[in-house]
Write a structure and sequence with these properties.
This protein has four helices and eight strands. With 154 residues, the protein is an alpha+beta fold. The longest helix is centred in the first third of the chain and has 17 residues.
Length: 154
């Protein structure tokens, strides 16, 4: 494992630990692993442009977004689709966020609520605007690949 891979794994473990209740040491690894998979996914699997977007640029930018709609994600029974619109922008700054329903199990989001998006080196962090607590990470595809579970062989 390279230093970069190690630091990415450490970052995800730290985020996962922050998203779950305190656990005993012997169950930390499995809890962090399951929380990490529920709380993160690749950008390409999570973020898509809205059909209402004007222009060809559906890029996500840091800032506050209002939840316009909450629906079942297409062809993914275990996922939700949030339609988010930039508070400082208009319909051209709108996108879909598909995330596992488990990511919002502890506290959901409601239509009209604000979500804060922060750009990070690994992708995007989605947090509740009122308390800044992250609930989902959209990871760059290379980060997601490196952090995926792999069978250990000797």
């Amino acid at each position: 494992m390279t230093f970069t891979s190690f630091s990415r794994a450490l970052l995800l473990a730290a985020f996962s630990a922050a998203c779950v209740a305190p656990v005993h040491a012997e169950s930390f690894a499995s809890s962090a692993s399951s929380a990490g998979s529920a709380s993160s996914a690749s950008i390409s699997d999570s973020i898509s442009g809205s059909s209402d977007s004007s222009g060809g640029d559906n890029k996500v930018a840091a800032g506050d977004y209002r939840v316009i709609d909450i629906a079942q994600a297409p062809a993914r029974p275990d996922a939700l689709r949030l339609t988010l619109r930039a508070v400082a922008g208009g319909p051209q700054q709108q996108f879909f966020l598909d995330l596992p329903a488990r990511a919002l199990a502890e506290r959901g989001v409601n239509k009209g609520e604000l979500v804060r998006v922060k750009e990070r080196v690994y992708g995007y962090e989605f947090a509740y605007a009122d308390n800044q607590r992250p609930f989902f990470l959209a990871l760059q595809d290379d980060w997601q690949r490196e952090l995926g579970s792999r069978k250990v062989t000797i």
